[in-house]
Write a structure and sequence with these properties.
The complex is a heterodimer of chains A (about 350) and B (about 300). Chain A has a single domain, classed as ABC transporter involved in vitamin B12 uptake, BtuC, CATH 1.10.3470. Helices cover about 70% and strands about 5% of the residues of chain A. Chain A is built from 14 helices and 4 strands. In chain A, the strands form 2 sheets. Chain A has a two-stranded antiparallel sheet with strand order 1-4. A two-stranded antiparallel ribbon of chain A has the order 2-3. In chain A, helix 2 packs antiparallel against helix 7 and helix 4 packs across helix 5. The longest helix of chain A is centred in the last third of the chain and has 28 residues. The N and C termini of chain A lie close together (about 10 Å). Chain B is an all-alpha fold. Chain B has one domain: ABC transporter involved in vitamin B12 uptake, BtuC, CATH 1.10.3470. Helices cover about 75% and strands about 5% of the residues of chain B. Chain B contains 12 helices and 2 strands. Chain B has a two-stranded antiparallel sheet. In chain B, helix 3 packs antiparallel against helix 4. The chains are: A mainly alpha (about 350), B mainly alpha (about 300). Chains A and B meet through helix 6, helix 9, helix 11 and helix 13 of A and helix 5, helix 10 and helix 12 of B.
Chain lengths: ~350, ~300
């Protein structure tokens, strides 16, 4: 009743092919986006912005990137952390070499560099499939991090081996670095992720996305009907790495402030993969839901024992968190293997009929 | 440029020819290290063969087994009894995993099961350390970490015994797979789940057995690695070291795990000793992966994996 499409007739191709054909959906999304831009910077405090919302947005972008590759094109990758590191280090090198360059342009350029690296490491996907490919992408993960650790040029010969976000401003407002306020960084991350999601959504609706899905569902059949595997797979690797690279650059510039390669190790790759799987493979909305889940659960686990009046020793607390986190992941996979996006879909179906049972 | 080429193509071989004893030492060190990787890779292969699950938790199982064993010994349990108890714990773990994780996820896509085993990894790491403590423990199994010299070549006693153990283990597994009733059932399940079910092989029991066997292999690997480098959190990371072994040998081949382990072990040691200094060392983290990748480009199914035949 609340949510229905009966009586809504589409009379043009344009309205039939819209991203959100149902007005309720469209208005909801527009309203949510506007609210996301306006409310948190005004209402949320520093802690919420810094510890929850900013990482949520950045991880969402990375999850969208991996979802394009794994969810849509069907290529399992464990090298996400490495590609994100490429973005971060490229952004650092670019902005220190060319300080006058707009920081948003720097983010996009570093995404492009990451895309280039992704293309190179995507080449084995032409011969190798499935888990063999997943293990092969680990080569990217380990090799790239080793490279950034070993070659001091990447960190501008800093003895600490860390990269630090310098102060950079856009239109007179400081966006990155130690002097940037959390609200500004939040709005920047939000703007990037909104644009990124919109582009991704349109990509997967169009020719490119269809060819990705064809390759995912049955690659030989896809090849026979004229989808070129080389181009399609490499395109998936490139675009996915672009998203991951931008997200990696944001991670250092908008969230951590400074980082070393440890921040991009294999745990990060797994986290992003968790987001994609728990959110839902092959769903842009799922990337957001999964990122929210993975960001919120550890915070909840850290605070839950205190809220219940228990005080655990630090080490025990950490192990407990690890254990419950692992358990929760298994639980979610069992309850809904198709992810949170599927739950959302089911809810929508139910809302259509509500309050009538049939 | 010529210097670099010389460093890559000439100097290492000159070094090898210059001191054959050292070369042999590196070679043997590589073989031993490779066998240790094979031990972990074996656990992967067993489970992948029988249930098609890529069990990322194998490393965590190694850690968990080693932690349990050391924890029991530290609490004054005799070694033999502790071993028995650890085996019982691993079998119980296999039962729980089959009931709680695998059974509800039957028929799901491979990637879902893979993610579930990563969840299992987190769970086991947290659980093991919560029960037994997170500090580094020494595992003393009575074999001294000493070296003796044969024909001018240093051989580490501990590594030698690890090598012998893995050889024995592989032989036992081979007999188990080829000569026993259960082994035959296991091979049937590996071949075709549905066909095996239809002739009355109890799939659930088989899975439990496979996970138990993988658990026991994990104990052996845990003992060997624990004796070598102490029982600590990083034990669970050896799963990552054995993955290149796995793709090199093929996911479904027991001999492949052994041969792959040897190639990776020797290649890694050689690369580190002779070519590592060229690029600043510490290459063992990724060298094995690149080596495996180079092999895969020519044989996508690994050295001994089943040939991939695809039809529309």
């Amino acid at each position: 009743m609340i949510y229905r499409e009966a009586g809504q007739f589409r009379t043009t191709y344009a309205s039939d092919q819209a991203i959100f054909p149902i007005p309720q959906d469209r208005w909801f999304v527009v309203f949510a986006a506007v609210a996301a831009f306006v409310i948190p910077p005004l209402a949320a405090n520093e802690y919420w912005l810094q510890a929850v919302l900013i990482p949520f947005l950045i991880y969402s972008l990375a999850a969208i990137g991996l979802n394009l590759l794994t969810g849509y094109a069907g290529q399992l990758s464990l090298g996400t952390g490495g590609f994100m590191a490429v973005g971060a280090y490229a952004a650092f090198k670019l902005t220190t070499a060319l300080p006058q360059l707009n920081i948003v342009v720097v983010f996009l350029l570093s995404g492009l560099i990451a895309a280039g690296v992704g293309l190179v490491f995507g080449i084995p996907s032409l011969r190798i499939k499935g888990f063999y490919l997943a293990v092969a992408t680990l080569a990217a993960q380990f090799f790239l991090l080793w490279l950034f650790n070993k070659v001091p040029w990447f960190v501008n010969y800093a003895s600490s081996g860390t990269i630090t976000a310098p102060n950079r401003s856009v239109l007179g407002v400081i966006v990155t670095g130690p002097n940037a306020t959390a609200s500004v960084r939040y709005v920047t991350a939000l703007a990037l992720v909104v644009v990124g999601a919109l582009v991704a959504k349109n990509l997967v609706r169009g020719r490119v996305g269809r060819s990705w899905m064809a390759i995912r569902d049955r690659d030989i059949a896809a090849e026979i009907i004229g989808v070129r595997p080389l181009r399609t797979k490499l395109l998936a690797f490139g675009i996915s790495s672009f998203y991951c690279g931008v997200a990696g650059a944001e991670l250092v510039f908008l969230y951590f402030g400074s980082a070393e390669t440890l921040a991009f190790d294999i745990t990060l790759s797994f986290l992003v993969l968790f987001m994609v799987i728990i959110g839902g493979l092959g769903s842009i909305l799922g990337s957001f839901l999964g990122a929210a889940f993975i960001v919120l659960v550890p915070i909840f686990l850290t605070n839950a024992p205190q809220a219940m009046g228990l005080s655990l020793p630090v080490a025990l607390q950490k192990q407990f968190e690890l254990m419950v986190f692992g358990g929760l992941i298994i639980f979610f996979l069992i309850v809904e293997p198709h992810g949170l996006a599927r739950l959302w879909q089911i809810t929508k179906e139910k809302l259509r009929l509500w309050p009538f049972p049939h | 440029m010529t210097e670099l080429l010389y460093g890559i193509a000439v100097a290492p071989f000159k070094d090898m020819a210059g001191s054959p004893a050292f070369f042999a030492e590196v070679l043997i060190g590589g073989v031993f290290a490779g066998l240790m990787y094979s031990l972990v890779a074996l656990g992967f292969v067993l489970i992948f063969k029988a249930s098609g699950v890529f069990n990322f938790a194998q490393g965590a199982m190694v850690l968990f087994a080693a932690l349990t064993l050391v924890g029991l010994i530290e609490r004054g349990v005799p070694v033999a009894l502790a071993l028995l108890l650890t085996t019982a714990v691993m079998v119980a773990l296999a039962w729980v995993i089959e009931r709680v994780v695998l059974r509800p996820l039957v028929n799901q896509e491979h990637i879902i099961l893979f993610m579930a085993t990563i969840g299992l990894t987190f769970f086991l790491e947290g659980f093991g350390e919560m029960v037994w403590g997170a500090n580094v423990k020494k595992l003393d199994i009575g074999i001294p970490d000493r070296s003796f010299i044969v024909a001018g070549i240093q051989i580490n006693q501990l590594e030698l015994s690890a090598a012998v153990t893995s050889a024995v283990l592989v032989a036992v597994l081979a007999v188990f797979f080829q000569r026993t009733r259960i082994g035959r059932a296991l091979r049937a399940v590996a071949d075709d789940h549905e066909a095996a079910l239809s002739i009355g092989i109890p799939l659930k029991t088989i899975w439990m057995i496979v996970w138990s066997v993988a658990g026991i292999v994990a104990i052996v690997a845990g003992i060997m690695w624990g004796a070598k480098s102490g029982v600590q959190f990083s034990l669970s990371l050896i799963a990552l070291k054995s993955l290149p072994v796995l793709i090199l040998g093929g996911f479904t081949s027991v001999p492949g795990a052994i041969v792959g382990g040897l190639i990776i072990g020797v290649g890694e040691k050689m690369g580190e000793v002779y070519w590592g200094p060229l690029v600043g060392g510490a290459i063992e983290n990724w060298f094995a992966y690149v080596l495996a990748l180079a092999f895969l480009l020519f044989r996508p199914q690994g050295l001994f994996g089943e040939k991939i035949i695809e039809r529309v």
